[in-house]
Write a structure and sequence with these properties.
Length: 926
């Protein structure tokens, strides 16, 4: 029986137990603090009934070294486990920040209403019996959410295990133990998996900064939890087990932001169709296709793993070793078979063996026996002693093409696993690339493994597992590199805005009359507006018109069925190729008409399209899209033509793309090698042009939400020619309201914020949201700034080399428009708007946690200061903040920055002095 607690509220600090680190005054402010570091809490449904959830969670809270007050709430008891109980949370003698609810599902709406009345800020709903039981449970969830939102109450769960913060001794779960403190944050959609991993972690001595069961995610989801843990200085890496995504845009926005600072590693349940259905049944939520999820992880720098062991192993590896900058691994082994196993696993997982340079081979020849392998894997033979390992590693660590080392030892007669481990540690000291090890065997290698592990070198029992771990490290590194590569510009933002409006008008009119499958000429017209070249296509409504159009175009020609209902023409015989005479055109027309009548009826044929037969030899590609229920538009690229479904050589990506992301998409297909180098007598393709085409296609998808599906198949790629030979666009049906159309998982460029302005002397200025391609423009802007302007903006001295560092500028240009928005003011060399751009100023909004407030900052080039540009930028930021649903705008300003203070006064900001920061605080309520 737990020790009785004093009345009226239980202080959970126990004598003889280690005192926890207090997090009541966190080094960062966040709305979710009440969940991870509450000053006081109540357990609603606390009871003494053995085996009950209410008893378990109350016991965990009062026996763990948590320093806050814990109140039991029970309608029918005056005390629980020796602590005075209260009938309702509104009866407590003092306010509490967090409520833990363990009552039947039917009672929870009323309990939430009480929590709102008592001013509670957060609630963890452990109770089950909601959406997973069908419509009745879903109705309960709607009631709960309505009550919570009425009072600004945030919810974790329902149907969850709860939450632990081991660093302060908080155990708000009904698990059977308390996690150890550490630097791993673990979040899981499965409470049972949480319990199993908790038990395993205690055995393996793995510690956590947070341990969270998210349940059904009625309110709090992955995004906000990731945001919190990304800001938490005590969290070194974030591990997730998920089955469903919830709000895809919020999840990806937070994941991308956090992955730039610390590893985010995921294990996803529901990777097969059978498991997918089980996940739906388990969570009562919409599951997501594995291929789409993998594309999302790639886009945001997340590392996706395939097992629980790999989940925790990769957390350790990424915490202890630098990330590889390439896929090339150098393997050192005293057993050829072990090296072969590692090489096989490396190749299958996407890595590559380091090609040894002539200098490295010569150096190894001088240090190793004559019979060493003379290639990578470097087999230094079974009689290798610690000294031979040292000599080989010393040489190989200087190989410039290598991105990492894998050192393998098998216990043989001449081996000394312990001494070899000691010498390996000495040999790799100062090596700047990852070092992994595989000490194969049992008790004879245990001491060596411990030596390696203590010094931060991850060690595996099998070399193939170690090789796969290196590949996972490289995938994580490559995903992050994509976030830091500066893309090439594609189109002018103002032109993009014009085409968006033009095409939106076409599609809206077509949809209003029920025309949801565009004809081939209509689809090609849309593509042409977006800068995607198409083959000339003409419509013929009769046999004779088909002949006339063929003769105008010139033979040979292609005839295709024109139909608003039949989507795949070639499958029913609706395509006729290489027609060289008028008679062949007539025969083809009649054959197409017969095919349409046979498969669908004569009313499904409106005529044919006629286009020239292309004689260019090239690759047939497919560029397409579909809508995923959670992630919205998804872009597909790969090998095309009639055999597209047989070849199955495609890759997916989430739009919008940059040229960098387009290249990554190309690289994930098998046909990429042929496109890059040429194959089968065909020349290489202009990859830069293909990247730009993919970027434009991705913009079509995000700028035109009425599009349900879009296919270009085939896209002919011949040398420097790209041509859409066939196209199909299907729209969402009219019964889908525009407000319910799938939205892109990644917010597209907000072109509606583009506008013009004029400096007093007549210089025309374009004010537009910043783009990833603006990094060179930003660098030139910073090069011309005075030290005083820099000091007034950043409140301290910041050198030019720091300001124009590549990673810093990428962070400021490649932004998430859901999290921040920067407006740049640019002038062109020529009055017409042509010529090179010059950046004159930048204004930035950064949303704060909670989503209702934002900070602003301005920086104007010295040569145009005092001409009203700063005022105009801030005025536009204020308008944008209103449109984004923000309620408060604030900024910190040095008292000597009188120009900025004048702008704020002019625009109605309230100014107050903060003596602690010695700064002026500018606040505007929207």
């Amino acid at each position: 029986m737990p020790q009785s607690q004093p009345l009226p509220g239980a202080s959970a600090t126990q004598k003889g137990q280690p005192q926890p680190t207090t997090l009541f005054d966190l080094p960062f402010s966040h709305p979710l603090r009440v969940f991870f570091a509450p000053r006081s809490l109540a357990v609603i449904g606390a009871t003494e009934r053995p085996g009950s959830v209410g008893r378990a969670v109350f016991s965990n809270l009062t026996t763990a070294p948590f320093g806050g007050s814990v109140f039991p709430v029970n309608l029918h008891r005056s005390s629980v486990l020796g602590v005075r109980a209260y009938p309702r949370i509104t009866d407590l003698p003092e306010p509490v920040e967090l409520a833990v609810i363990a009552t039947p599902a039917e009672t929870v709406p009323a309990v939430i209403a009480d929590c709102v009345a008592a001013g509670v800020k957060g609630a963890i709903i452990l109770s089950a019996g909601f959406r997973e039981r069908g419509p009745t449970g879903q109705a309960l969830e709607r009631q709960i959410l309505a009550e919570a939102r009425h009072g600004g109450l945030r919810l974790l769960g329902p149907n969850c295990l709860g939450l632990m913060n081991p660093r302060i001794g908080l155990n708000a779960t009904f698990a059977s133990g308390m996690a150890l403190p550490g630097q791993i944050a673990f979040l899981s959609q499965s409470g049972a998996l949480c319990s199993a991993i908790l038990d395993w972690s205690l055995q393996e001595r793995i510690g956590f900064s947070a341990f969270v069961s998210v349940g059904s995610m009625l309110d709090l989801g992955w995004g906000e939890l990731l945001d919190y843990l990304g800001d938490d200085p005590q969290t070194g890496s974030v591990l997730l087990y998920l089955e469903t995504v919830g709000d895809a845009r919020t999840f990806l926005s937070a994941a991308r932001a956090v992955a730039r600072r610390k590893p985010v590693i995921l294990l996803k349940g529901g990777q097969t169709p059978e498991a997918l259905q089980a996940a739906v049944s388990h969570t009562g939520a919409l599951a997501v296709r594995q291929e789409v999820f993998e594309a999302a992880c790639s886009r945001c720098g997340l590392l996706l793993v395939e097992s629980i062991d790999e989940l925790f192993a990769m957390a350790e590896v990424l915490a202890r070793q630098p990330r590889p900058q390439g896929p090339h691994l150098t393997i050192v082994t005293n057993a050829g078979g072990a090296g072969v196993l590692a090489a096989d696993a490396l190749a299958k997982a996407g890595g590559a063996l380091t090609p040894l340079s002539p200098e490295t081979r010569a150096a190894l020849d001088a240090q190793l026996p004559a019979y060493w392998s003379h290639q990578n894997p470097v087999d230094i033979l079974g009689d290798a002693d610690p000294e031979r390992y040292t000599r080989a590693i010393t040489v190989l660590s200087r190989e410039p093409a290598s991105d990492g080392l894998l050192i393998i030892l098998t216990p043989q007669a001449m081996s000394d696993p312990t001494r070899t481990a000691e010498r390996v540690v000495e040999a790799v000291a100062g090596y700047k690339r990852p070092v992994l090890a595989s000490w194969m065997g049992g008790s004879s290698v245990t001491a060596g493994r411990e030596i390696l592990t203590r010094t931060g070198i991850p060690v595996w029992a099998s070399p193939d597992t170690a090789a796969r771990a290196f590949c996972a490290m490289w995938r994580a590194s490559k995903h992050l590199q994509s976030l830091y590569e500066t893309p090439s510009p594609v189109d002018d933002p103002e032109e993009s805005a014009n085409r968006r409006v033009q095409v939106a008008g076409w599609l809206t009119r077509a949809r209003q009359v029920g025309h949801t499958l565009l004809s081939e000429p209509e689809a090609k017209a849309v593509l042409q507006v977006y800068g995607i070249p198409t083959v000339e296509t003409r419509i013929a409504l009769t046999e004779e018109e088909a002949v006339q159009q063929a003769e105008l175009l010139g033979y040979p020609v292609v005839l295709k069925l024109l139909s608003s209902t039949i989507t795949h023409k070639s499958r029913i015989g609706g395509v006729r190729l290489a027609l060289r005479t008028a008679e062949e055109v007539r025969q083809a027309y009649r054959a197409i008409a017969e095919a349409a009548e046979r498969h669908a009826g004569p009313e499904h044929m409106q005529g044919v399209t006629v286009q020239p037969m292309m004689t260019l030899e090239g690759y047939e590609l497919i560029v397409g899209s579909f809508c995923d229920p959670q992630f919205g538009p998804v872009l597909l690229f790969g090998s095309g033509g009639r055999l597209v479904e047989v070849q199955r050589d495609t890759a997916l990506a989430l739009p919008p793309l940059t040229t960098t992301l387009a290249r990554r998409l190309l690289e994930r297909t098998r046909i990429f090698t042929a496109l890059q180098h040429g194959a089968a007598g065909l020349p290489a393709v202009d990859l830069a042009a293909l990247e730009r085409l993919l970027v434009r296609f991705s913009l079509l998808l995000v700028e035109q939400p009425l599009i349900r599906e879009c296919d270009i198949n085939p896209l002919l790629a011949a040398g420097d020619h790209l041509l859409a030979l066939d196209a199909r666009i299907a729209l969402h049906p009219l019964d889908v309201p525009e407000a319910e159309l799938p939205r892109p998982a990644i917010r597209p460029y907000p072109s509606h914020y583009i506008g013009s302005w004029q400096l007093p002397r007549g210089t025309l200025v374009t004010i537009r949201p910043i783009r990833p391609e603006d990094e060179p423009l930003m660098a030139r802007f910073h090069e011309r700034l005075s030290e005083r302007s820099v000091y007034l903006r950043w409140l301290h001295v910041l050198g030019l080399s720091q300001r124009i560092a590549h990673e810093r500028l990428v962070d400021r240009c490649f932004i998430d428009y859901d999290r921040e928005l920067a407006l740049v003011a640019v002038a062109h060399e020529e009055p017409s708007g042509a010529g090179a751009e010059t950046l004159l100023g930048i204004g930035r909004l950064i949303k704060l946690p909670g989503g209702e407030e934002a900070e602003f900052a301005l920086l104007v080039a010295d040569q145009v200061q005092g001409q009203g540009l700063g005022t105009e930028l801030l005025r536009r930021l204020m308008k944008i903040a209103q449109q984004e649903g923000l309620r408060r705008l604030q900024g910190r300003i040095l008292p000597e920055n009188q120009a900025m203070l004048r702008i704020c006064r002019k625009l109605g900001f309230q100014l107050t002095y903060n003596p602690e920061e010695q700064l002026m605080q500018a606040t505007y309520l929207l």
